[in-house]
Each structure stands twice: as structure tokens, then as C-alpha cells.
């Protein structure tokens, strides 16, 4: 039996198995890395060059020619990645019209192609989060129920229970998210603009971010209970119910009294 076992298992078998396992892990890691950087590989040298020209003409006065920033004026953009540029410029927050506690969203000042070029230039200055893929932000692939749990745990204290926005301190505010595109919602979670914290994959996974997007986009379908009444909570809705009910009672009492007299 011992002689048979020695012939059945070769001494090198464990080493071969370990090498095969390492090769499999390396292959999976390479596939994941390729998928996650698909957006970054679409930028060409021409995009970077054109983005540098746009940056010098429109952004360098505040951020500096090398995007290193200026103390008390604008932060450094080295290492913020393409996602931060796509969000800030794509939502019209940058360039800012005037200094203030918060940069408001407005109509974008650049075309989609120009925004991509600016993002490519800034991404070339240092590694940072890339623009998410269409699959990562597709609400149809997300779970609104899971997204609701994640949103109310991580986001509702500022943006409200259904993403309607809310006031913060010192003139700042959490914006309404109902008209924000899925890509910009994902990028905001990824980069943490202004008062918002960063939610990297250690805090909320890529799938979790997509679930949150699915929950927010589900709000477009309306309220199953009828009028939203601003969707600011049961206290306000209950107050309106009492006002309407009491108003009808008072009006009925006055009408009955007038008819009796």
C-alpha cells in the first residue's frame, strides 16, 4: 500500500498545484484591472494635449498651469482623477461664476468632448478615480431595496430620505439628486465633492453604489401614496392633513351656522 501511494503522488505535485493557483489568481486580477481601467484607456495623447490647452485657457488662473493649486484660491488637482473633473465640469460647478460657500450646479460651459479632454489631461497628472462605465451606473442592474438601505444609512442625513436635498451649515447645502445623472451620482460618491465625504469601495462597493442609483432613479416613478407634499417627512405631511381636516370642519361649522340663522 505504501509503495502504491508513493507511485500515485509525485513529489512535485504540490508545487505544480501552487503554481497553477497563482496563475489563476494573476489571471483574475488582470481581468479585473483591465475592466476597471477600461475608461482610462480610451483617452489618447491628443485628448491629453487638447485638454492641456483647455485647462491653460480656462482653469490655470485658479489652479495653476500645472494644476498644483494655489493656497486660499483653489486646491491641487494632481491625483484627483478623471471622475472628479467629469463631475465638477459636467455639472457646471466648474468654472465657478463667483466665490461662495459652495459651487452651485449650472449649465455646463464645455461640450462633452471638451470635458473628456479636460478629464484626460488631469488624469495624466496623477493616478485617481476614473469615470465609471455604463454598466457600473446602470439603474436597471441595481437593487432599489438594497440601495434604499445604503442611502438611508450613509446619505439621508444630508440629502433627505429620498434624495430631495437639505440645508447644511455656513450657507452650504446638500443638493436635490432627482435630476442628477447616474454617472454624476456615482462620481460624487467616488470623489466626495465639497462637503460630501468620499465613499470608496471599502465603504460602499461598486455594486452598492449602483443599488443607490437604482433607488434614487426609482423616485422618478412618483409616490405610491399620492402627492409627495415636498417629501420632507411624516411630520409635515401630518400637519397638512390636520390643517385640511380642521379647515373643512371650521368651514362646515360656519356654513351650517349661516344656514341655521
TrEMBL record:
Signal peptide: 1-31
PROSITE patterns named among the record's database cross-references: CYTC
Recorded coiled-coil stretches: none
Keywords for the protein's UniProt record, in alphabetical order: Cell membrane, Electron transport, Heme, Iron, Membrane, Metal-binding, Repeat, Respiratory chain, Signal, Translocase, Transmembrane, Transmembrane helix, Transport
InterPro entries from the UniProt entry: bc1_cytC-su (IPR009152), Cyt_c-like_dom (IPR009056), Cyt_c-like_dom_sf (IPR036909), Cytochrome_c_Oxidase_Subunit (IPR050597)
Topology in membrane: Multi-pass membrane protein
One Pfam family linked to the record: Cytochrome_CBB3
Reaction equations catalysed: a quinol + 2 Fe(III)-[cytochrome c](out) = a quinone + 2 Fe(II)-[cytochrome c](out) + 2 H(+)(out)
Subcellular location: Cell membrane
Residue ranges constituting the Cytochrome c domain according to the UniProt record: 46-126, 142-220
Enzyme class: translocase
UniProt KW Ribonucleoprotein keyword: no
Keyword Metal-binding tagged: yes
EC number(s) per entry: 7.1.1.8
TM segment ranges: 239-258
Domain of life from the UniProt record: Bacteria
Assembly mode: The cytochrome bc1 complex is composed of a cytochrome b (QcrB), the Rieske iron-sulfur protein (QcrA) and a diheme cytochrome c (QcrC) subunit.
PANTHER family, A to Z: CBB3-TYPE CYTOCHROME C OXIDASE SUBUNIT FIXP, CYTOCHROME BC1 COMPLEX CYTOCHROME C SUBUNIT
Name listed for the protein in its UniProt record: Cytochrome bc1 complex cytochrome c subunit
Organism field: Demequina sediminis
Gene responsible for this protein: qcrC
Amino acid at each position: 500500500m505504501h509503495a502504491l501511494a508513493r507511485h500515485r503522488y509525485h513529489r512535485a505535485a504540490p508545487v505544480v498545484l501552487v503554481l497553477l493557483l497563482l496563475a489563476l489568481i494573476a489571471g483574475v486580477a488582470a481581468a479585473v484591472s483591465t475592466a476597471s481601467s477600461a475608461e482610462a484607456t480610451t483617452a489618447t495623447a491628443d485628448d491629453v494635449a487638447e485638454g492641456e490647452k483647455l485647462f491653460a485657457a480656462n482653469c490655470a488662473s485658479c489652479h495653476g498651469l500645472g494644476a498644483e493649486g494655489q493656497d486660499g484660491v483653489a486646491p491641487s488637482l494632481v491625483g484627483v482623477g478623471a471622475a472628479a473633473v467629469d463631475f465638477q465640469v459636467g455639472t457646471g460647478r466648474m468654472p465657478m461664476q463667483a466665490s461662495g460657500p459652495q459651487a452651485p450646479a449650472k449649465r455646463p460651459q464645455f461640450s462633452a468632448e471638451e470635458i473628456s479632454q479636460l478629464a484626460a489631461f488631469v488624469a495624466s497628472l496623477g493616478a485617481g478615480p476614473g469615470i465609471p462605465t455604463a454598466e457600473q451606473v446602470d439603474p436597471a442592474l441595481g437593487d432599489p431595496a438594497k440601495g434604499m438601505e445604503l442611502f438611508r444609512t450613509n446619505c439621508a442625513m444630508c440629502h433627505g430620505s429620498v434624495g430631495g436635498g437639505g440645508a447644511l451649515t455656513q450657507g452650504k447645502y446638500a443638493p436635490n439628486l432627482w435630476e442628477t445623472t447616474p454617472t454624476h451620482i456615482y462620481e460624487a460618491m467616488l470623489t466626495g465633492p465639497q462637503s460630501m465625504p468620499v465613499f470608496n469601495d471599502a465603504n460602499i462597493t461598486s455594486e452598492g453604489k449602483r443599488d443607490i442609483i437604482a433607488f434614487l432613479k426609482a423616485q422618478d416613478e412618483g409616490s405610491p401614496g399620492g402627492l409627495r407634499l415636498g417629501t420632507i417627512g411624516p411630520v409635515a405631511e401630518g400637519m397638512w392633513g390636520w390643517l385640511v381636516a380642521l379647515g373643512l370642519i371650521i368651514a362646515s361649522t360656519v356654513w351650517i351656522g349661516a344656514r341655521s340663522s
